[in-house]
């Protein structure tokens, strides 16, 4: 065996410096150990400190015992007599060597301030001197790292087996806390794990040449860690598993070094043996042969150690119940495969990979795919990956749809590697499961799927011949790949998501996606001989993909939903962006007019092509001498405007003119002239056609109507992006709309576009006035036009055509919103003459439109495309339109444009069948309205309930069944309204009180025509109003109750018939809080204010007496006496206090409640009862006591109620009068204050509650069935101990 020095010479100085630092830091420990040593020397009769080193053998191979695993006790007995002398240097099992070994191995690792190699070197020195003592320190180090306060003594080390020592340490565990060093929080403990792992790695590295082969140290450590890893205590199991896995990793590194040395030695031996006989050195051959033999023996021993750890720890713990333990095993076996792939990257170990891939914890699933993607991709790797994929391919494919995105990303990357190793492993169905993920909203998943797609479909390109010029255009190698992309896009049937497909492949296929020259050639050039031309559908898809690639290159951010916002570009990215825009402009400035000319009649293709100039660098038109191509582009745009009437095409032309009309560039004049000429022609044509169209006495011709409509659509599309004020379009459009109202036969689409065009005229006039100093005449003109236009829209709200009414409604809401009182905000007081407030008639018409066109059944909406109401897409589109209409009206409510009470008809729909469609909009409207005005919002809510109640009365009459579905629905709506007020009662105090006030007035508004002996007609509404009683403060309940009594007669308070139940239930809901509080005072649990007063006035000695409690009235009583001139009714005598008062607001465990309330005094001559008998007896006693207290409370409540009713007849007060002393403390009185008051009035010396400690949540979790047999290391007595 090759012997090497344990500590290299270059580390001696560092070793001395660090050791001195440790001794300096632990000076107190050293002095403490000296005192104990001197004390032991003085009192011990057999103390002998002479020749300590002579009694210890130097560790060597094969000298200390048999080969194989032994228990700790067995190891302590064999080998040498050093254990006797070592026991002399121990106090209570702690090794005392210069005061630093006593628990200092754990302390030094925990501090992490010293070089770990120095710490290990110190331990190695102590091991050479006394290996039993050093091993005992190492054992205690692992025990302490587990959080155990117990210590393994020398006596235990010599005479006890592993299971006995572990059971003893289990009993020493601290049960107060379930934390241990590996799970503790804080920066120190976060660093401890890395220091702990580093210590194990350095220990094996420093001992790899001799000590680990002495068949003593490693056997002892492995035996200990194997036993601890089977412990039922989580701390032991987790810590020992981590230590064993890190020990295994260090041994794998040693085995790898041995393998390399063996290969080198074998190569040297072969080289020496192949020499000629005369030049061959036989001595060297013998040395090399001996060295190889020793290396082989060492490797065999290392393999035995690794097998012991793998089979004793890993095989059991990789499926542990604790995710952290499983994670340790998964991470480390991955490291073994990466470090020593020849030994571990085979079927014997890969099977554990397949099993752990079915783990349900996402962060564990993520480790395996991530590990494989980081492995060296050699032949061994690909063979192993192919074997693994064939076994668990379906599981990997299913992981691509995991709910945790990180797991899905790593799974897709692993499938990409599988695809690289062998394309035959994955079937077409498996690949399709990954293909559709390129449209995922989560960008990392989409990018990973894009890489997979590119690897599968686009990585095979035709090789280019060397020396030949690069082929471009249709002859480019990318031509077939672009066609493949088009085919894939069409087959995916997601034609509106080309931007997402491009973004998914942007990182891996940039060169392909930026080959715009090839794309343009495929669109313009004729196909080659034998090549199939692109179909019309394929050409449309190619144009859409080309547009998306240009947009991605110019904007440098993913599409909507794929990113959180625009990020700051780096210098390199900005340069790439500028270069791409230059390439796009240089290419398409020439090609775009040709493409527009070819596809000028295809609306879909033209719409996409017209968006390209938005991404041009317009300066290149001048610098590149491309003005003639600009003129060609303008001619094509004008030609397209004349040919098309589709709104999308016309708006695309308008946006293109807007993008080209940039005053910063020299081409502005050229483009502006062309645009003005086009608008002049359109306006002249419109005025001429309109004059003929509106001639009196003639029926409108269809051709004339079409000409007017097409021209009006072109003008409206351009007016959206351009200021056309100088053409004065308001007069002609107003005339057209006015004629439509008078005659009533105007075509629907003409009215719709005329309304929209007039709306643009108003907005552009407002923008012009706001940006520049305008005259009063301009303001008056705009004011007149705006009000006249609103009247026109109001008339069209009653039109027979639904599209006209919807357009008029949307425009009215926008105009009212823009010209509301908020127009003067931000220093724009000069616009005050433009403020327009809708009158009541207009508000009513807007509300009626909402009720008639929004809150309708889906089947009733006949305004769907081509009448295909059954089509799901049409239903979704119709619902989206109705939601926009409702949102437009709700904006008027929350911004105080219309009266808030108009929202009552909206709020009443909250719990009906429209909740799924509009519930979010209505709820947000309620929330915003409450922020605007709490009281008015509450009035609106109660108004909506009153409307529903009134409608129910009209349908069912006054003698309705209160259990009927309509009434139950109104109560449920009231309950939902109550929940929207939240938990902060102080913020909604006035609003809730006003709500009750309006509700009470409504309930007693209509008296019964049969006389006072019969209830009011709306009395049942009080049953609905009671849903809001829980939102009242305690003192406000009394005030509302007093207000209720103003409407009641003495006969009403005495009626108990069923017809009066709403009144009784509402009164009871108002009396719930006050009675409980009074009982609390009488029972000795006073309010915070009375507690303070009683503490100030009570004597220094003695306890608070019950009469003092009766004299000190609560704050509620004081408020009532001042507010309502009522005297606190005389209460019954306070019941005897028990321990249940102290636990009034805390839910007791069964054992606490029974033993605490009824302490049992066992008799001397009575036989002890069993547990079940005791529990039965205590339950019966408890029930009797609760029944007695409930009867007393009911009697007191009735007495108080009678007194309140008598005073209420002669009393009248307003609602929500200002309190002289607002009471807030009583509402949320803390339990501490109540306990302090109780402690002052009770003597707890007579009661002693001694409950057994209960297991906390962590304890209960740890006692769940585990994946191992604890009986192998513990007997039944150990299993009964409370553990974590």
Automatic annotation (TrEMBL):
Residues 46-94, 1086-1117 are annotated as: Disordered. Keywords: Cell cycle, Cell division, Chromosome, Chromosome partition, Coiled coil, Nucleus. SUPFAM superfamilies: ARM repeat. Residues 83-94 have a biased composition (Polar residues). Its main location: nucleus. It is found in: Nucleus; Chromosome; Chromosome, Centromere. Belongs to the SCC3 family. This is Cohesin subunit SA. It comes from Latimeria chalumnae (Coelacanth).
